[in-house]
Design a protein that fits this description.
The structure is a homodimer of 352-residue chains.
Chain A (H helix, E strand, L loop, with lengths): L3 H8 L3 H8 L7 H14 L5 H8 L4 E5 L8 H18 L3 E4 L5 H13 L5 E4 L7 H9 L3 E4 L5 H4 L3 E4 L1 H14 L5 E4 L6 H17 L8 E2 L5 H12 L9 E4 L2 H13 L12 E3 L16 E3 L2 H16 L13 E5 L2 E4 L2 E3 L5
Chain A binds a DNA duplex (30 and 30 nucleotides) through helix 2 and helix 4.
Chain lengths: 352, 352
DNA sequence: AGTAGCTCCCAAAACGTTTTGGAAAAATCA
DNA sequence: TGATTTTTCCAAAACGTTTTGGGAGCTACT
């Protein structure tokens, strides 16, 4: 591979001139520039990104750092987001480095490596837990980052994040089924070791409170890990005396809802919005949600908006014009400086 | 951020010694090493990946380079693969750079940049077209790469690739519906500007030929771009006299099949494997395929195997032990040196 | 004619590592 | 004891850019 010296020699100028010609500086004669450009083209010369980074202290790369653990629920959404993010990076002339790990042990080591080694200029941190040591890690290292999601203590820590308002989404869903006349509302969730599970559950409790419905522990199952547990849970719920059985099942995400619907269907229980049927709702609006039978009523995560906001915020922080960060998404609620909440959108289909 | 000099000064040794201590060389006293390690820890020192790359000529990064254009069909599968790839990279201690572009103009410029600038050690090229100028580009630049998919002229060009045998998948599907007694088999496909469309269509023709069925132009529609066209196509097919209507519809991918099923259902036409119903098949086995009603009969792309093979092959090429490249996937067919074909798996469900 | 101001170019330093080729000090051997 | 080997360390070069701080050679002004 040719380097800048090869070009300089061939053109009969110094490497300084080659560099400045290629970078569009005005202190090089137009004729010389043309000549250098042609030679660079001929030689198939491309400046080394690595050398450039070393000198310029900029890599023009950001990392997307999720936890690639194999939850029943987590992987689908990760897949949705990375493509959109990659596309969005083009606008900022950034490259996207995907950096995750599956065993939680390694994770922090991988993240520390990518954050500490100067390989990237900024990081988008995903899959935030209620208490997430990665926030402190990155803050410590001093690398610009934006979290996708938020911890429980985001107010004290006050790091930048974009989150989707899970509580609001669930509240809308609950209100919707409440207005159908349903009162016994079960809530199914994965374990509370992911922030969004906690916030969504809070939404459920807030709604019950608002409508004056007492919490019924038997209707709340919040540690679902595997498919088999779901089936089991459902049959337990439906072995209750008729007057105590749930009239609606609020699932904390689409994948869970999918399994709930399948379990119910298998048991011969009708799912749907009509009276006599049991209502089921999800959250996320993954691609399959529209194609379920019955099609899933859910709250849509605004993926495009979220990714745009994440990049916008991160770019602003990296560009040091932190002062005037202003997220342009219309439905963004500002929780604190550089902390934004995006609203999910209610999607009514057939399952509720 | 501290650098190696800071550590050296604090430890009272030269930077050489720090470097060698950190990299586990044996010519540094165990006591000194311990001291250096502790100081590095205290200082929160991490070697600059950039400087290291510059010196070592290795970035330990590979790029995933798809075409992120917004086809009716292409995006879902891209999303599937990037997550698995990212996970697989961990085993090889590689990072994954996602580098795509949406307008086809930019694409080559982006690719040239990432390939020519030494930012990555290797590239996984996806979304191969029947004639794909990117192959020549990368060969020219001389960067190690593996294509996911293959051009029409892969034999002359002879570059490394992993492909999924689309023809074989379609053949199995066609044979399956043929054995149900169906003879009038329509074929629906997106435009032939993507390799897999061509190979899959070939599979269809080979099967017809094998079973002595004449090709019926009216049953072959191969330029579907939008949803609306699909509905239109379907109604045209079903406005034929009864004796000429298709008994099965072979769609070249799941997304297409999904829309076909929806269109048919809207028109009140029963889809399924039973006599009197029309059979519909897809290809890919995307996550939603199992949840359609009727659930989609399709050919599953072995994503995990494919990603594993891509990485295995690329790693071998990058490691210069090209000679003994041996793909370990059990169902891999070798087409040429470093050229492998993986077999899709028939997934029988309800739609056919 | 002298000087100030352009235009166009360049040598050298800096970015932070690893590698190379020793060299001093300590240990071992004869 | 002197010679040899081993252990432990280091100075300098190299990787390929960009930036800094000028410096010729012209042109234009007074």
């Amino acid at each position: 591979m040719p380097n800048i010296f090869d070009v300089a020699k061939r053109a009969g100028v110094s490497i300084t001139t080659v560099s400045r010609a290629l970078n569009g500086y005005s202190d090089v004669n137009e004729k010389t520039r043309k000549r250098i450009l042609k030679i660079a083209e001929e030689l198939n010369y491309y400046p080394s990104a690595v050398a450039r980074s070393l000198q310029g202290k900029k890599t023009n790369t950001i990392a997307f750092a999720p936890w690639l653990r194999d939850h029943i629920e987590s992987r689908s959404f990760f897949k949705e987001i990375v493509g959109v993010l990659a596309l969005g990076c083009l606008k900022y002339d950034l490259s996207l480095l995907v950096s995750g790990a599956d065993s939680s042990q390694e994770t922090n080591e991988t993240l520390r490596e990518v954050a500490g080694s100067g390989r990237v200029d900024g990081i988008i941190l995903a899959d935030i837990k209620p208490e997430d040591e990665r926030i402190a890690l990155l803050t410590d290292i001093g690398i610009p980052f934006v979290a996708f999601g938020r911890t429980s203590d985001y107010q004290e820590l006050s790091y930048p994040f974009i989150d989707i308002d899970g509580a609001a989404g669930i509240r809308e869903l609950v209100e919707y089924v409440y207005n159908q006349g349903r009162r016994r509302l079960a809530y199914l969730s994965g374990p509370f070791n992911t922030s969004y599970s906690v916030y969504r559950f809070n939404g459920y409790r807030e709604s019950l409170n608002k409508f004056g419905i007492a919490e019924e522990p038997r209707l709340i199952v919040a540690d679902l890990q595997e498919q088999s547990q779901i089936k089991e849970t459902i049959s337990k719920l439906f072995s209750l005396p008729e007057s105590q059985r749930p009239e609606a099942i609020i699932a904390s995400n689409d994948t869970l809802a999918l399994n709930v619907i399948n379990s119910l269907t298998e048991m011969g229980i009708q799912v749907g919005s009509k009276a006599g049927q049991i209502a089921v709702t999800g959250f996320d609006d993954l691609p399959f949600a529209a194609f379920l039978r019955p099609a899933l009523t859910t709250a849509r995560q605004p993926i495009e908006d979220t990714c745009a906001a994440l990049l916008e915020l991160l770019a602003a922080i990296m560009g040091q014009n932190e002062a005037k960060v202003k997220i342009s998404q219309t439905n963004a609620l500002m929780l604190g400086p550089k902390q934004y909440l995006l609203k999910p959108e209610l999607v009514i289909r057939e399952s509720a």
